[in-house]
Amino acid sequence: MQVQRVVCFGAAALQACMSVPFFMSFVSSVYIDGVNLDHTHFARLLSCASMLNRHSTVLLYARKTPDQPALQLNKYRWSHKTVRPWGEELPLQCPECGSIASLKIKAGQGADLHGTCEMTGCPFTRTYTRPNGHTAVKSVEQGAWLVSVEGGE
Question: Which of 29, 51, 78, 100 could form an SS bridge with 18, CB 3.0 to 4.6 Å?
Fold first, then answer.
């Protein structure tokens, strides 16, 4: 017997109770109802556990077909324009002046987003760019899941 799927969370201190709605929906739809687990459906399942969005990347190792020897890595990152620009965590305080919650995100050229500290006299700024190889899977008002795929050939 070969493992068909493995789900991993990238959070440093994941609280397991935050993943319960995701796993309940996963078991119900994939194993009981037999729904095909494509990127859109997996992102929909992740959205069932809204607390995962802001705290963790999610890795899904899966086989394209049951007899495929190698697992394919699907890396999901939640992105929100002002909370997690292009899936990047925002610092709680400005790395330059130390002010708490002073980083504001604004649109830049193209798809870039710019973070700037709003404290008077602080020069801190950072540009957030769309990660290469990531595609938006499911966009909602609360953000979008981005996915990249590696391996599995």
Answer: 51
